[in-house]
Amino acid sequence: MHGKALEWAYEIEGRDFRNAGKVSSKVKEILKELGFDPAFVRGVAIASYEAEMNVVCHADKGTLHFAIFPEALKIVVEDQGPGIPDIELAMQEGYSTAPPEIREMGFGAGMGLPNMKKNTDELNICSTVGKGTVVEMVIRPPSPENDQDEAIVRHHHHR
Length: 159
Hints:
The protein is of the alpha+beta class. It has helices at about 20-35, 40-60, 85-90, 100-105, 110-120, 150-155, and strands spanning about 5-15, 60-70, 75-80, 120-130, 130-140. The chain has a single domain (about 5-155), classed as Heat Shock Protein 90 (2-Layer Sandwich), CATH 3.30.565.
């Protein structure tokens, strides 16, 4: 990723279900305000919500870094927590290590990582058991005339 980026960072607290979803809502608001395509915004919101919920459900705390580059969006979520012992297994639909109390709230259905994969162009996960996980997502905006720079320039002159 090169060129100038607009960047934000938001803290996420583990087990803070009251505020769960706030960070992804902020990401969504920013993209809407910049005039990005609604379907694109929805996909980004789903991916960032799932990443945020993973921190809330599984980690002690984390940070969502959100950057808009000329060619794509990049979301990096770093957490301090138990880590993911088997990423390949965790990528399977329906697999979850969420405890019963989290499942009872309607979370932990094992669709988080698969949904992130579906809504991103690139998904990289690095995890150290006992330390935490870094999830990196890259999402490229659709461009009707396949000229990415044009599309982004239009967003910036949106105001």
